[in-house]
Amino acid sequence: MDRLKRVLYADSIQQQFQNALRENAGAFVASIIDLYSSDNYLQQCSPDDVVKECLKAATLKLPINKQLGFAYVVPYKGKPQFQIGYRGYIQLAMRSGQYKHLHAGAIYEGMSIKQDYLRGSIEIQGEPKSNKVQGYFAHMELLNGFSKTLYMTHAEVLAHAKRYSAGFSRAGSAWQTNFDEMATKTTTRLLLSKYGIMSTEMVTALTSDHQETEDAVAAEIAAEANSEIIDVEYTTEDDEAQPTEDKPEAKPEASKEKGKGKEEKQLKMEGPGF
Q1: Residue 4 φ/ψ, nearest 5 degrees
Q2: What is the DSSP string of 149-198?
Q3: What is the mean predicted confidence (pLDDT) over 237-242?
Q4: How far apart are CA 60 and CA 26, in angstroms?
Q5: Are strands 133-142 and 99-108 parallel, antiparallel or unpaired?
């Protein structure tokens, strides 16, 4: 904890928080200390790296309080990672002032989806009959009238998570403890990244969130890749070079005879129809 405070209260770090948050810098720094002290796994990470990831949230002006669900700094294999919750994406979208409606949620058993493939919209019908989730949706409508809805089945979200989330199967990961929230974030993120307003903050958020996933994958490959040395036999060009015998030159007479035969064949083909 003392090392974290030394990093946090360094003049250069304090200046960065001041530039990003102004009068709210002190409260944000206090929230970092609370987060670090309440997470035993995060305490195993380098304090410098923890502060670096928290600065990403500060730059986007997103609180890192877990209960709020806007942004998180979570440990993964000894390294902290900055992640944005679906509420964080909605917050960044609202700041643009271009959205009339923006909503995301789950579709339960008993409800049905009617898709309009021409307009790219869906209509939700029916009432839930149980708590079993069938899929997830995200919907947006801009002030200029443009609207778009994205729907993914539970199986599609699961396949997406297994492919793109490095920590999906890790015990205690958000996918394991709060699948619905992560699924809602996935549909929201995909919708906004394809059809939303690309403000500077939104671009930064999408890039940061995606980059951390890629770094985690790269770290996992580096840690678990096969490092066994394999001996491979090879030969040099000198070894492969083999003595060759001089081929006898073609006799001029043979060449002439061959050419003569070709000329005779051409002569025979001349005439009507050729």
Answers
A1: -60, -45
A2: EEEEEHHHHHHHHHHH-TTTTSTT-HHHH-HHHHHHHHHHHHHHHHHS--
A3: 44
A4: 16
A5: antiparallel
Res. 66: pLDDT tops 50:
yes
Q: How far apart are CA 208 and CA 201, in angstroms?
A: 10
Estimate the crossing angle of helix 179-195 against helix 200-224, to 10 degrees. Answer: 120
Average pLDDT over residues 118-125: 84
Predicted confidence (pLDDT) per residue in 141-187, tens digit:
999 999 999 999 999 999 999 888 877 887 778 888 889 999 999 99
* pLDDT beyond 90 at 136: yes
Helix H or strand E encompassing 82: strand 79-84
* Residue entry with tokens 């904890």: 1
Give the DSSP letter of residue 246.
P
Instruction: Tell me the C-alpha distance between 88 and 164, whole Å.
Output: 20
The answer to whether the CB of 95 falls within 8 A of the CB of 118 is no
* Between residues 33 and 274, the one the model is more confident about: 33
Domain ranges across the chain: 1-84, 86-222
Tell me the C-alpha distance between 181 and 159, whole Å. Answer: 16
The pLDDT value given to residue 211: 38
Q: Among candidates 145, 149, 143, which has minimal Cα distance to 98?
A: 143
Residues of 31-52 as b/e, b for ≥16 C-beta within 10 angstroms?
bbeebbeebeebeebebebbbb
Q: Is residue 65 left, alpha or beta, with left meaning phi > 0 and alpha meaning psi from -120 to 50? A: beta
Residue 222 CB contacts under 8 Å (≥ 6 apart), including other chains: none
Say what the pTM is: 0.69
